[in-house]
Amino acid sequence: MKKTAIFYGSTSGNCEGIANKIAEALGVSNVFSASELDAAKLEAFDNLLLGSSTWGSGDLQDDWYDGVDVIKRSDLSGKTVAVFGCGDSCGFSTTYCDAMATLYDAAKSAGADMIGAVSTEGYTFDESTAVVDGKFVGLALDEDNESDKTDDRIAAWVEDIRPQL
After folding, report:
1. Residue of 59, 82, 90, 157 with fewest CB within 10 Å of its CB?
2. For the segment 129-158, what is each residue's pLDDT rounded down to a tens digit?
3. Which helix (H) or strand (E) holds 82?
4. Cα separation of 89 and 43, whole Å?
């Protein structure tokens, strides 16, 4: 596997915990808060896994606001990017994991090779901007209502993306 880093935005600790589980499953030691993202870190890694919790009506987690701008100003051509996110499928079922779409769109527009789409089958939610062609643009998780599914979903996603990293 090429040099890989995970960047996450987490307020309550859920997305940070997810980032660490993904890192452990992939054997990745480079795990950073999104607040630490800068152009030098983007340049230093071949593979980037970007994760955020979704807040309010589909908002990106606060630590990501500067990081998204860094991504948008970068050339990610030749880099492989996957996204993951946490949301509340019951309380915010019409904006479930929308923050993933923001990260996905930023990385894709910067030229990244995007991987890691996940079928919406088995998920309960009403709407999400993170769904494209019937699939989530990355790994969607709900630690509030479906934490019993998290480990299996991470394991399946990691096995899907590992060959491409």
Report:
1. 90
2. 999 999 999 999 999 999 999 999 999 999
3. strand 80-86
4. 35
